[in-house]
């Protein structure tokens, strides 16, 4: 199975490096994406939009021969929103969407418009801006490595409104890998009809997996994350 790995804010395709081996050992073909404007710290990202990131994923989906079967999209954090909009654009080409510590946004939603913006981009903030749950297992060494590799994200990727158009997206199976929040907590939020869970509640088939750690399991528990993704996808 071709598995497209979509990173969240501040990260490029290399952020999946320690997750990839478990997917390959399971017989899958992972494709870790570096999205537009995230090629380097010096890249020009001033005009990059959320749609540009979605279109980049759709282009990769379209690059595979349909005769070879459907693809799986895996999105971490804000990458989950990008995966969801890409599945909306190509619902007939996506076998499953895996949301890593993320949930799909509904029409008009956004990734995060509260992050500090500097000259049209969002640098990785100081750790104090994050909640304690985000930083579980992210020790000093991992924090230093993360900050060294972090690339500012285009501001509009985080603040542009999501646009959805094809309700067939609700027929695409999904998996939520819950890290900083438990699946029990997520189900409780859904029962309460909290706004950010309403799109997820409309998906007809959702599996839930607990992987207790902080918001960046690709750094804190990469092997377990790879196995969880492989299990959610099923046989190669």
Automatic annotation (TrEMBL):
SUPFAM superfamilies: alpha/beta-Hydrolases. Residues 3-225 form the AB hydrolase-1 domain. GO terms for molecular function: catalytic activity. Pfam families: Abhydrolase_6. PANTHER family: AB HYDROLASE-1 DOMAIN-CONTAINING PROTEIN-RELATED, ESTERASE_LIPASE_THIOESTERASE DOMAIN-CONTAINING PROTEIN. This is Pimeloyl-ACP methyl ester carboxylesterase.
